[in-house]
Structures are given as structure tokens and as C-alpha cells.
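Before a colleague's protein record goes any further, I have to sign it off. What it holds is a sequence and that sequence's fold in C-alpha cell form. Would you go through it and say whether the fold makes sense for this chain? The record follows directly below this note.
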Amino acid sequence: DQDESSITLQWNKINNSTSFVLQFNGIQTFISSPDGDGPVTHTVSSLTAGTRYTFTLFSVFENVRSSGVQLTAVTVPANAEGFRASEQDETSITLRWNKVGINTSFVLQFNGTETNIRAPDGDGPMKHTVTSLTARTNYTFTLFSVFENARSSGVSILSATGSDYVLGLNLKLELLGEMSESEMEDALIELFRKYNLPPQFTLKIISSKP
């Protein structure tokens, strides 16, 4: 088993007189053979999400070690942060989220379908547009981070396609500090959500200095 910060290893007992040494990252852990005939289970914790680890297990009998057996396993990657709908119209929804890591891809799940999405180069946010949708319809999207076939627990959002009318609204804001267009978009979306207004809009931000 594995999660974001731990990997659980399991192996068969040899006999009641044989113990084990688990070695990884230059650390050795001594593990005694438990009572009974069941398998031996050991959990390695305090690991980093989305990381590959190599473990070496030695059997030990009266201070004599076996040649050892190796296993490579990975921790589950973290869920993507900032997952939200950034643009909607009558037939499409554009989703946006932050990258998790260089080697972490994604799976987008909705309506019983799954779409594999590779992480592009660079550190910018991810964008993906889902098309051929129905106007005025709610959709649930679930996004999974994937590292070497290990899938995160997933994060879900509910979003709706736009209706067949357009509402235009001009806002003039005075900012005390500097904000990027992306940061301003995030702030306005949170403002709309605070007052239970679905952020189904397209923003055009124009900077004007006094």
C-alpha cells in the first residue's frame, strides 16, 4: 500500500529464528520476525509525495545476512492545487490548475470518461478545455495527479456551461499593491463565490495608471 507520505511493504516469513534488515536512503531498520505464520508488514513513513524509492530487504540469521532483494516503489503524488473552471460558454468549459511536479501527469474524469493530460514544460498553470457540452448543464469534474501509475485521491469541482444570454459588467478597481492578471482573476472569482454567484464569465483586464 502507499499514500502521499508512506509506503507499506509486505513479505513472507522464513521462520521464527530469522529476522530482517530493511535498507533505504542509507538508513537500516531492524525488524524482528513476528509470531504466527502470516506475512511480515512494515510501513515506512515521513516520505515525500510523488517520489520513487528503492528498498533492499535482507534476511538475518545469527548475524549472517542474505544477499538481499530489492524493490522499487513510489509514493502517491499530491493533488493539484487551484483546480477550477476559468472560462465557460454554452458548449465548453475551460479548466485550470497548478502543476504538481515535472514528472507528474493528470487524468481528468467526468461523465464516465477519462482523459490523460501530460504536464507541459515550464512552471505555468495547466489549462484544458472540455468541449461538446450542453448549455445550462452542471458537470462534475474530478482531477487526479499521476506519478508512475500511482494516482492521487483526486479533487472534484462542480461547474456549469453558460446560458444563452450574456451579462456585461464593467468594474473599476483601485489596487493598493501590484497584482498579475492571474492573481486578479483568482480574486474576482473568489469574490463572486463569496456572494453565491457562479463565476461563469470571461475576464478582460485592462490596466490604467492614474
Remarks:
- Helices lie at 181-194.
- The domain at 7-74 is CATH 2.60.40.10 (Immunoglobulin-like).
- The chain has two domains: 7-74, 84-194.
